[in-house]
């Protein structure tokens, strides 16, 4: 049984290296976009464009955070972390949500300042062109991150893709505000920035909720379905107390089974091995199964929900 475990560990390390390469490429794209938005936002004194640049800069910062976290998450299990370091990826996702929240507060401050002080951004064709270019880049980045996030089942990449998608909507809103300012509605800059703030807050909530679910050991598999698969294994008389936790790509399961009390220790162990193989074949994301074997009672137990 050691070879499959080693193979899974190597596959997980290779997957983490690939996730880091994707994050590094996205980091470069995000900071190019952020620099363009910040420069033109400050030059034109547009709260919405500057806030959008800040949002893109936070995208880059979240990529740096993700790279550091993935470097830790890819380490194999050790004495202090017997279940591995995978949750550091979820911690990074939580950090992304926090960074979005910080950006949201700054966005609100700038928007109110624009509205209350009636600041008028200077709209130019060059600025609109730059914003349109960054929009195309952000759409491409989002598609790439979501593709590789689904391919590698990476919570971090999917969270960052959601963050970058929020930047797409922000940029669309900013382009709308520039059009309204150009048409003679200067306060649109601040009001659209406030609308963007609400949207960014919703994105942050979704990312934080997902990360908290992982860190709080939310069940990853349906216990009834796991018990059904287990009951199909020859020699298992009952299955109960099914529990699962972990991340999408690395799930840990433990459960209790009852077997014929007349089985020898070796025979009971073989039944447990068959249960482990069955669950890992059924759920490729399962990296470890702990099976507690007990002698069957005189009255068979019904399968219970965990």
Automatic annotation (TrEMBL):
Q: Which domain of life is it from?
A: Bacteria
GO terms for cellular component: plasma membrane
Q: Which residues cross the membrane?
A: 21-42, 86-105, 125-144, 165-185, 191-208
* Localization per record: Membrane
**Keyword Cell inner membrane applies:** no
A Gene Ontology biological process noted in the UniProt record is: intracellular zinc ion homeostasis
Domain (Cation efflux protein transmembrane): residue spans on this chain: 23-215
Its principal location?
Answer: membrane
What are the residue boundaries of the Cation efflux protein cytoplasmic domain, all occurrences included?
225-295
Which InterPro entries does the record associate with it? Cation_efflux, Cation_efflux_CTD, Cation_efflux_CTD_sf, Cation_efflux_TM, Cation_efflux_TMD_sf, CDF_Transporter
The GO terms describing molecular function are: cadmium ion transmembrane transporter activity; ferrous iron transmembrane transporter activity; zinc efflux antiporter activity
Keyword Membrane in the entry? The reply is yes
Question: What is the membrane topology here?
Answer: Multi-pass membrane protein
Its keywords, alphabetically, are: Membrane, Transmembrane, Transmembrane helix, Transport
Record-linked PANTHER family = MITOCHONDRIAL METAL TRANSPORTER 1-RELATED
> What family is this protein classified in?
Belongs to the cation diffusion facilitator (CDF) transporter (TC 2.A.4) family.
Protein's recorded name: Cation transporter
